[in-house]
Write the structure tokens for this entry.
Amino acid sequence: RKEVEQDPGPFNVPEGATVAFNCTYSNSASQSFFWYRQDCRKEPKLLMSVYSSGNEDGRFTAQLNRASQYISLLIRDSKLSDSATYLCVVITNTGGFKTIFGAGTRLFVKA
Amino acid sequence: GAVVSQHPSRVICKSGTSVKIECRSLDFQATTMFWYRQFPKQSLMLMATSNEGSKATYEQGVEKDKFLINHASLTLSTLTVTSAHPEDSSFYICSARSTRAIVAEAFFGQGTRLTVV
């Protein structure tokens, strides 16, 4: 089993749609959780941190469920510019800090 | 926010030569940096963890003698791809963790696209 697993995608949605991505992680000792966005041939960039209390930033909402070891990202009112790969990222500290990436979910927003 | 600078952004080299990639944390100290490789349409794969002042920790399947990592200072880690072959052509990205923030996050360099011909 992979340490971090994401929806395979790709997601093809029209502008204005609401889309949700899911991610699960296997290490219950994981400490920090993030969603990163990666555009083609570019480095990943932090989209938002994920907290148990939930985190909302404009059209983006991230949730963490530690009991289920599950992370989600909700994008409302999708824009063309939201088209990218979204990476679920988990930081663990078992024998040293390690940043683990999910395989990423590709999103295509179409006019 | 914290900035990580990676150089070069693009390099083309001949098979059999070595290539050095630099990763610098510009406004914070990074005792630990990470090196990733990403093949087309695939996820970032951790290659190794670079520890300042000590040996790097390599992931399973990554040849330590081929991918030499040096982390001589708190702001610089280098990855040298030795005797590069066409199958080493990939996108290499470094990241460094900032421990200043309440929730530690990873900052990434711009990436280096290596093409071995």
In short: The two ends of chain B are 37 Å apart (CA to CA). Chain B touches chain A through 25 residues (CB under 8 Å). The first strand of chain B starts at residue 4 and ends at 7.
